[in-house]
Amino acid sequence: LSTRASEVLSRLSISSTTELSGVYDGQWRGSGVVQESVCPATGEVLARVRTASPSEVQETLAKTREAYVQFRNVPAPRRGEILRQIREALAAKREDLGALVSLEMGKIRTEGVGEVQEFVDICDYGVGLSRMMNGRLVASERPGHSILEVPNPLGVVGVLSAFNFPVAVYGWNFALSLAAGNATIWKPSPTTPLCAIAVTKIISQVLEANGVPGAVASLVCGGKEAGQAVVESPGVELVSFTGSERVGRIVGQNVASRFGKVILELGGNNASIIMPDADLSLAVPAVYFGAVGTAGQRCTSTRRLYLHRDVADEFLSRLKTLYRSVAVGDPLAKDTLLGPLHTGSACEIYGQAVEKLRTVDADIITGGERYQRDDLKAGNFVQPTIALPKSVNPKDDIWSTEVFAPILNVAIFDELEQAIEWNNAVPQGLSSSLWTRDIRNVGKWIGPAGSDAGIVNVNVGTSGAEIGAAFGGNKSTGWGRESGGDAWKQYVRWSAATLNFSDAAPLAQGVSFTP
Ligand code: UN1
């Protein structure tokens, strides 16, 4: 293993030489199949992880439930205080954890560190929330009666996270879940177990120091079977799943069939629309970041670009210049902007998507190949690509499917209404972005006939949302909301409690039932 990688791992107490335990529920263990964590930039094996065997998943589920039964009685502000300590512990490891994200997932350093920052931010949010998860007092129609709407801890929250945000998305769920008084069981992506182990180590130390059962933050590394066991477990009140539409459909149906609660964060197929009055000095770099940042592997990545005819040539020529000079390579190097795709099979999917564009006679304006440079051969590096398909019909496959790679499809429009129609015509509905300085366009865009996505930005790109607002998408993205806004309300059990303080017991609606 390279010295650089082993230094990062050792500062996070992760051994690269012995097989790591991928299960935690107060104790570390793991006797299931071994997963390898592979660096997508170099192909080197970073470490090996012993995953959860089927019986270990069940034991961990049981331990997590026990932890909940204990933890639910801890007052919310005290839970917030524990979360504050977790926040501090994460912030202290921000650089190393960020570097581990780069090593294991492949995103560039600033984005890896940014992802840890996102976890820190949501912890701050959860700390505040721990003193503000208020219920309500509702006026009763009956004299001497009051109605309380009461939020109580929900139970066990299962978090199934994806490779592309191996830290932050768990963070969104964990921080709210902990503040709400729940225990969480985390099944991370099979290709990013080290991030999950490092985060769980940091959290578990804080929990243990506070005398809280470690299984409040359980971890089961594993593959499909482990995920399925969590999804199917009747003891998991809420399943929060991030991943593909295909798997999300199975998870959603499964959880619904046992009347559990589910949060789905599935595909994104996000568009940016550039009006003729847009400030191109801001819009061009924003589209560049949206489409090339994280090598196009965010749910919120910009995949479609709708350019007004009057600015199309100018915009494309500026964007092409940025694409052609992109600093590609080692995600940990200071100036790199484009890291590798996460896996070899992602490169194949990229190749197939480019091939398909070629068969429909799309104009490949730039990119379309794997890099040939010697220092990039060991990694999964592909050129960021801009394509101008002949067809502008958003129902066509090239427009309607999410390809998790840096491929940007471009079409040219004349009227905003046309662009909004295209924006909305795909199955997915996560993020969208309009560039204009005309307030009338803004009104259309954010109004009833505007973008139907969960994120509707103006002069801000499609990706890189802050934690304060609820994050999530509509339609086939799954309608889930995580992180800020009212998302916390899903992590509690709501009850309406009608209290009678009077000497009579009248019925509602004036119903008379006198024996
Ligand atoms: C994801 O890609 O699954 O808005 C999450 C963003 C990030 C989160 C993306 N804050 O791009």
Automatic annotation (TrEMBL):
Keyword Zinc appears in the UniProt entry: no
Endpoints of the signal sequence: none
Keyword Nucleus: no
PROSITE patterns per the UniProt record, alphabetical: ALDEHYDE_DEHYDR_GLU
UniProt keyword list: NAD, Oxidoreductase
Membrane spanning residue stretches: none
Uppermost EC category: oxidoreductase
Catalytic activity, EC: 1.2.1.3
SUPFAM superfamilies for this protein: ALDH-like
GO molecular function, one term: aldehyde dehydrogenase (NAD+) activity
Source superkingdom: Eukaryota
Catalytic residues identified in the record: E265
Domain named Aldehyde dehydrogenase: residues: 35-494
Entry similarity comment: Belongs to the aldehyde dehydrogenase family.
Subunit text: Homotetramer.
Official protein name in the record: aldehyde dehydrogenase (NAD(+))
Organism listed in the record: Coprinellus micaceus (Glistening ink-cap mushroom)
Biological classification of the source: Eukaryota, Fungi, Dikarya, Basidiomycota, Agaricomycotina
